[in-house]
Design a protein that fits this description.
- The complex is a heterodimer of chains A (632) and B (684).
- With 632 residues, chain A is an alpha+beta fold.
- Among the domains of chain A are: 224 residues, no CATH class; 164 residues, no CATH class.
- Chain A has a seven-stranded antiparallel sheet. In chain A, strands 16-17-23-20-21 form a five-stranded antiparallel sheet, with helices on one face. In chain A, strands 10-11-12-13 form a four-stranded mixed sheet.
- Chain A starts with a strand and ends with a helix.
- Chain B is an alpha+beta fold.
- Among the domains of chain B are: 138 residues, Dna Topoisomerase Vi A Subunit, Chain: A, domain 2, CATH 3.40.1360; 109 residues, Dna Ligase, domain 1 (2-Layer Sandwich); 78 residues, no CATH class.
- Chain B is built from 16 helices and 35 strands.
- In chain B, the strands form nine sheets. In chain B, strands 13, 14, 15, 20, 23, 24, 31, 34 and 35 form a nine-stranded mixed sheet that branches.
- In chain B, strand 5, helix 3 and strand 6 form a beta-alpha-beta unit.
- In chain B, helix 15 packs across helix 16.
- Chain B is globular, with a radius of gyration of 26 Å.
- Classes of the chains: A alpha+beta (632), B alpha+beta (684).
- Chains A and B meet through helix 1, helix 5, helix 6, helix 7 and helix 9 of A and helix 3, helix 7, helix 12 and helix 16 of B.
């Protein structure tokens, strides 16, 4: 049974005409309110993940729950479908369970707060936000156990719960939840910060409605959704071909020695509508790399990506959802069945963007971006310091932004909105470690007319014994290049022990013991290159060499540019070399994935990476049984 | 007899205010600016103002000046070739920056990062290491650093920056490298991060120190030339420059730490606004400075402008205190357009700038701007012209606005009104940033508007903000000159000192404060401000341990010794609650300690108008039909220079002066007070 709205004032809204100027003003005001939510959150949250790295997503939705401003699209529809209770004035909802909200959040570290906004005892809008908690309990610090088989191992699950009832905080519930977390004071303050951010949005919505009138406010939100739909309809028509396009990419492994896992998607247009079908995607994993992908969220990813690539002037919101249909088969990596583990979904979440880029771009290669949105690598370090105090670090890594139609990809930057790195001086002040190296790796960005960004290397020197976790991917498959661009370099992790011995670490591992003095090189991936590197202007290549971002050998081997000892370009030698390389190579490829087939890739895996090739994934039969039951 | 002189060099006019130290009497002059060499205009002005006051320029002892040299150097990318020395492993600190990509989800697709201010090719690594606690892990490897510095020298750097990891905790290794640099390249100015901004966060410290080096040679040269020319005409004159935080710096300090001058221009406007509004009796202000391409807003509480520990110019953001001015890309030249797919009306951030400028100025501009909308609506009458030689063409404005009207399917007049409303909305957003978002209620503040275009939009913004009265000071240029002439010499010294309350003591904190005050006081003594004329203030940045936010709490040293750190903690809790609706039961942590030392403030009297009664009709110079709030209405046009104290101007009305035009809306009245301020209030 879906949720039931109870409001003292049942007066229906009137859909009225909104003057186009007032409409723009309301859009602006809502946008400002949404940024104000960020401001409030960043300033008052405590965990570095939210505070410094900005792992959080705010939203304001209309009375029906459609997102008007925000990032990841609305999940209120899913929540209302899944929640069997009432929605009343003064209620605030909290959940972190992907299975309880149709994947509105995709692992239980993300705490989602929903605030129905009432004015004069009538629901007028929704404010919501979710943020990543550093720890929610479970079997490992950070609550992202690579080897979890079921969601129960990943920490405390909160079903959709009224954490405020008629304006009263349900303290016992909050305490119960916090009691299960390793860093309850961080969770408490981050929770408070999220609530404060939503309250800000609530206040602003009421103010806007007061300024323009409730009916205008209501109608303007509708009109903003429709405006977006009209623009997107045009965009879809112009850019999505009717012929089916296919694209597939991989998650390299599952942390249990099996992989790679295939994500496959088809896209085509029927009339006004664009359709996506993930048939052919591998079944769900027995480990925690599953990504519960909400269809609406996928639509938002897709819409935002299209807007950014084709026409950044369009304001995005939920208005265009009717123009997209998405099929994700149950029991797959992207729609796992309960109680599959979900905590390490970050790899598949990132990979979805590469898949989208490949799908949308193949119809119009001028707009195609290379790969690199491959991951959001995590590093964790915890233990007891010499004062006997528990320390626990959760950090998100960055890498090379892909080469793209507009230019080079930045080196060691974030692909996620508003994310930033944590200052190393901050880390060294609060955690028992030193950052010995913080640099990007030359030649790691895929060569191209527009160079992919370089991978980032962080050298963590541990000052106390402790345990570390590494969660990364793209160590086996490459961030691919496009339009003749080369793939970016793959990721790797090297642990140098105090006696000088070097150990290659698996791309995904937990509870790796480290001693004081050990040094971990955490190398992420480079972005794929865009366009033919043999036509990249030689002065740009020389500039990169001077900057140390490309080596002299890299310039020669990848760009065909011969650099003299004094750093200048040997133009004659370059012209000759480029001509030779061009004729040896033949035509450029639309996609350069860096391998011919998965078998070929696996065959050279150990020689290339030093790590054993993953085994063919094993899948579980109960999933098939249940899936058939659901279908039949 | 001693005089001080405030000078503001604007795009069109150079304004000067001469203040007689003894009596506070003032004289002003306005002369055309001379962009090819701004000192020509300055000296023309000095001759004019001295003639008016009947004094010899030799009687001027202090010249105070806001400068945009540092700002323009960054904006035009014409700074020095800066070499950078980092700790081994950190050569790419500026390249990686904070890894931030603007623009939201998918923003990377259209983001092209600009090059670092210090090129990677000119960045070297030093073999050394400091710990976060300030212990030397590795001493500087002299031989290695000498060799690397020699390479930099050979590459022809013009300024050197040293920013080592954890130098905020201990400056020993940076100092050592400065010594080596003095041997290797004695003529190159060196900026140390531990001197420019001794605070935690390596990227922010590096970019700030590099920015200092980047603008330093140009600022030095400019100051040198100005000082030399001034000294030719006046004996013993001291040149002071307005800093971003609204304090004055000696020319020596300005030359060493020019990163503190990046907001010198806007700070002058705010400081002048504070002073003139004070003359009219208002101390709580929202300031609105609307120019051709952008608008600056700031909040002033109890006569003190809010400061921010951050300064942004173009895409460079540095850690330097500045008046908390927020800038939006909304100005008279902002271009209006209607995107094909959405049919929404957007104004800015693209601007027609000074060239080609708004279509109505007939200098080749064809795109519709905010100014064109103002002309179309009749707010900038073409029938009357004062002093300035700007021709205004309504027909060209109408032509330009046609594209917007077509896109929206509205009449040109309605479209112009839309442009006016939208640009107001953009400024409204910026005003909210400095007020409501910081926990201030805009109804407690008066709105003071200046800049060429501010007074045209001020009344409308007063309505949106509910901030009354709206204050329109006389002459926007004069305002900045007043700001220059009335500010105090100021210096601050700060130190990052991260301790939980339980890990430090009241006495330890108080002792550090005293040391910092001594450092800052010495700077003032060096600038000729005797100790007995100095006032010291203290600030501490606090947060909940583990939190990112810092709140700045001002501290009275005696009070601190009496009531202890706990009392400060309580004030922090209260402020946190006011801003964010909650306080935490978590331990507080000291992060930065700061002492601010200021010289005494100058006594300056405003010029006054004679009383003229309520009737302003003697100042009427014409009539104009204007389109306002959806209908055509008849408005009187007034010449501001003919207005007298006590005049009551009923809206709708237009008040014109040489470099600005004021719009008073229907239902509002503008009263002229004794200092010439127009106070706009809604009619009861």
């Amino acid at each position: 049974m879906p949720a039931k709205l109870i409001q003292a004032n049942e007066t229906p809204f009137n859909r009225v005409d909104v003057d186009p100027i007032a409409l723009d003003i309301i859009e602006n005001a809502l946008k400002n309110a949404r940024y104000e939510m960020d401001t409030v959150l960043f300033r008052t949250a405590m965990s570095p993940g939210i505070r410094e790295q900005h792992d959080e997503f705010p939203m304001i939705a209309n009375v029906e729950g459609k997102m008007v401003v925000g990032q990841f699209g609305s999940f209120i529809h899913g929540f209302k479908e899944a929640f069997n209770g009432t929605i009343e004035e003064g209620d605030v909802f909290l959940t972190n369970d992907p299975y309880a909200c149709n994947g509105a959040v995709s692992h239980i570290n993300d705490w989602l707060v929903l605030v129905p906004v009432f004015k004069d005892h009538r629901l007028i809008a929704w404010a919501a936000m979710f943020g990543h908690m550093t720890d929610v309990g479970g079997k490992v610090p950070g609550s992202l156990p690579t080897d979890a088989r079921q969601i129960y191992e990943e920490g405390i699950r909160v079903p959709v719960t009224k954490i405020f009832k008629k304006g009263e905080l349900q303290e016992e519930i909050l305490e119960l939840v916090l009691y299960n977390c390793r860093l309850p004071h961080w969770n408490r303050s981050d929770f408070n910060a999220i609530i404060a951010a939503c309250r800000t949005a609530e206040k602003r919505c009421v103010e806007i409605a007061e300024r323009f009138g409730d009916d205008i406010f209501y109608s303007a939100m509708d009109e903003l959704l429709e405006r977006n739909k009209r623009a997107m309809a045009q965009l879809i028509k112009n850019t999505v071909p009717e012929e089916k396009q296919y694209f597939e990419d991989y998650i390299c492994d599952d942390g249990l020695g099996m992989g790679p896992y295939r994500i496959k998607c088809a896209m085509w247009r029927e009339g006004d509508k664009v359709k996506f079908d993930f048939e052919g995607t591998d079944p769900q994993s027995i480990s925690s790399i599953n990504f519960y992908l909400n269809e609406e969220m996928f639509k938002m990813f897709c819409g935002v990506y299209m807007i950014m690539v084709f026409d950044p002037q369009i304001m995005f919101n939920d208005g265009f959802y009717d123009l997209m249909e998405v099929n994700i088969p149950a029991g797959t990596l992207l729609k796992p069945m309960e109680p599959a583990a979900l905590s390490c979904r970050t790899h598949a979440l990132g990979r979805i963007f590469d898949v989208l880029g490949g799908l949308l771009g193949q119809g119009s290669p001028d707009f195609l971006c290379a790969a690199g949105f491959s991951d959001s690598p995590h590093f964790m370090y915890s233990g007891y310091d010499k004062n006997g105090e528990w320390y626990q670090l959760y950090q998100i890594g960055f890498g090379g932004v892909p080469g793209k139609p507009s230019g080079d990809g930045p080196d060691g930057h974030s692909l996620w909105p508003s994310f930033t790195n944590v200052p190393n001086e901050f880390l060294e002040s609060y955690f028992p470690l030193r950052i010995d190296v913080y640099e990007t790796l030359p030649d790691s960005g895929g060569a191209g007319l527009h160079r992919g960004g370089n991978a980032l290397r962080i050298g963590y020197r541990f000052l106390e014994p402790g345990e570390i976790s590494i969660h990364d991917d793209r160590w086996l498959t490459y961030p691919w290049g496009v339009n003749g661009g080369h793939p970016g370099q793959r990721s790797q992790k090297i642990l140098v022990r105090t006696d000088g011995t070097e150990e290659l670490c698996e791309s995904k591992c937990d509870r790796l013991h480290v001693n004081a003095g050990d040094l971990l090189y955490f190398d992420t991936w480079g972005g794929g290159g865009w366009g033919d590197p043999l036509v990249r202007p030689t002065d740009k290549v020389a500039f990169d060499v001077d900057a140390g971002l490309v080596t002299v050998d890299g310039a020669r081997n990848n760009y065909g540019v011969v650099i003299n000892e004094d750093g200048t370009v040997d133009e004659d030698a370059t012209t000759a070399l480029r001509a030779q390389m061009s004729s040896d190579r033949g035509d450029t490829k639309l996609f350069d994935k860096g391998f011919e087939s998965v078998d070929e890739l696996k065959a050279r895996c150990e020689a290339d990476t030093g790590l054993k090739a993953p085994q063919q994934p094993r899948f579980e039969t109960w999933v098939d049984v249940q899936r058939q039951r659901v279908a039949g | 007899m001693a005089y001080r002189l405030g000078v503001d060099v604007g795009g069109t006019f150079t304004d000067l205010i001469l203040v007689k130290e003894e009596s506070g009497d003032t004289f002003s002059a306005k002369v055309p600016s001379t962009p090819e060499d701004s000192s020509i205009g300055v000296f023309n002005g000095i001759s004019k103002v001295c003639a008016e006051a009947g004094i010899d320029p030799k009687d001027i002892t202090h010249v105070m000046h806001g400068t945009t040299v540092a700002t323009n150097t960054v904006l035009t990318g014409t700074g020095a070739n800066v070499g950078l020395v980092t700790t081994k492993g950190y050569r790419q600190v500026l390249q990686i920056a904070r890894s931030f990509v603007p623009g939201g989800l998918g923003g990377w697709v259209i983001y092209n990062k600009s090059l670092p201010l210090a090129p990677l090719g000119l960045t070297i690594e030093a073999d050394e290491r400091m710990s976060a606690g300030g212990e030397i892990v590795d001493e500087v490897n002299d031989a290695q650093v000498r060799e690397e510095l020699t390479k930099l020298k050979d590459k022809g750097i013009e300024a050197l920056t040293v920013c080592l990891i954890n130098a905020f905790a201990n400056d020993a290794n940076e100092k050592r490298i400065a010594e080596l640099a003095a041997e290797v390249m004695p003529d190159i100015p060196v900026s140390l991060s531990s001197e420019v901004v001794p605070e935690m966060q390596e990227y922010e410290r590096a970019i700030t120190t590099v920015a200092n080096s980047y603008v330093r040679p140009r600022v030095e040269k400019y100051m040198q030339n100005l000082q030399t020319e001034l000294s030719d005409k006046m004996e013993n004159v001291q040149l002071h420059v307005l800093r971003s935080d609204g304090g004055l710096a000696s020319s020596a300090a300005a030359k060493s730490y020019p990163v503190n001058l990046l907001m010198s221009g806007p700070a002058g406007g705010v400081t002048g606004a504070v002073w003139i509004a004070g003359q009219s009796g208002y101390k709580n202000l929202l300031t609105l400075d609307m120019g051709g391409t952008s608008t600056d807003v700031a909040l002033v509480q109890d006569g003190v402008a809010q400061l921010r520990r951050e300064t942004t110019v173009g895409d460079v953001t540095v850690r330097a205190s500045s008046v908390d001015v927020r800038t939006v890309g909304a100005g008279g030249g902002s271009i209006a357009h209607v995107p094909e797919l959405t049919k929404a009306l957007r104004v800015g951030p693209q601007s027609a700038g000074a060239a080609p400028g708004p279509a109505a100025y007939n200098k080749g501009g064809t795109e519709p701007t905010v100014t064109d909308a103002n002309v179309m609506l009749g707010y900038m009458p073409q029938s009357v012209r004062l002093g300035g030689d700007m021709e205004i063409r309504k027909d060209l404005a109408e032509q330009a606005l046609q594209s917007v009207a077509d896109g929206l399917d509205l009449s040109v007049q309605r479209a112009a009104e839309g442009v006016y409303d939208i640009v107001n909305e953009n400024m409204f957003g910026a005003l909210r940033l400095v007020s409501v978002e910081q926990g201030y209620d805009p109804r407690d503040f008066a709105l003071i508007a200046f800049g060429g275009a501010g007074p045209l939009h001020a009344n409308a913004l007063g309505k949106l903000m509910n901030s009354w009265p709206v204050l329109i000071p006389p002459g926007p240029g004069v305002l900045c000159a007043y700001g220059d002439a009335t500010t105090r010499v100021r210096d601050e010294a700060s130190r990052t000192f991260i301790r939980r309350f339980s890990q430090t003591s009241t006495e330890e904190v108080a002792t550090i404060f005293e040391d910092l005050a001594k450092t800052a006081a010495q700077t003032l003594i060096d600038e000729g401000v005797p100790e007995e004329e100095q006032v010291a203030g203290y600030e501490v940045d606090i947060r909940y341990q583990g939190q990112g936010l810092l709140l700045t709490i001002s501290v009275d040293l005696d009070e601190l010794r009496k009531t202890g750190l706990e009392a400060i903690g309580k004030r922090f809790d209260d402020q946190h609650e006011q801003l964010f609706t909650f306080a935490l039961d978590a331990e507080q942590e000291v992060v930065n300690l700061r002492a601010v030392v200021q010289g005494k403030s100058a006594e300056v009297k405003a010029m006054t108008l004679e009383d003229g009664g309520a009737d302003p009709s003697a100042a009427v110079i014409g009539k104009e039909t204007i389109h306002v709030e959806g209908s055509d209405q008849e408005a009187n046009i007034y010449d501001r220079s003919k207005l007298k104290a006590g005049n009551q101007i009923a809206g709708p009305a237009i008040v014109m002066e040489m470099d600005s035009t004021t719009l008073i809306l229907p239902g509002h009245t503008g009263s002229v007070d004794k200092v010439g301020m127009i106070l706009i209030n809604p009619n009861e």
